[in-house]
Fold:
Amino acid sequence: MTTIDALNREVVFRHLSADDAATMLSVWQMIEGNGLYGAALFRQQLSQQSNCCHFGAISISDRRGMGLVSLGWLGEFGKLTGLYVDPECRHRSIGFGLVSAACAKAADLGLTHVDLEVEQENLAAIQLYQRCGFRLIGSSDETCHFRYPVNVT
Structure:
């Protein structure tokens, strides 16, 4: 899936492979904190995708990683984790594209739904997930639980 962002850059949203490790390393390090993990570990993560796949947003013009999300599954149930968009790339539909790509993969896999959790104070993420079709199914003191019904007819 390809789109044009708010700065008129062509952005591709795709299922990542080990070959994407160098491009996406800066995004991975932002997620994991302080650059503690290197390209080798990230490449290993991208290689071991039996019940998990990672999606990235990559700027075509400069091959820059802009965001990352992971979809894991067990049987027919999926879980979205680790959505991260580079702060310089926020408010440009990158998060929407990543979540949409992961949900499309969930449909391809025949999953019935995809769940996620988000902190109640993260209003921007909550609004994003709702725009993507996720529905609030519960909450705890600090967390909201959302579900995306994959195969709705």
Observations:
- The mean pLDDT is 83.
- The two ends are 23 Å apart (CA to CA).
- The beta strands are 2-4, 10-15, 52-59, 64-74, 77-85, 113-119, 135-139, 143-149.
- The first strand starts at residue 2 and ends at 4.
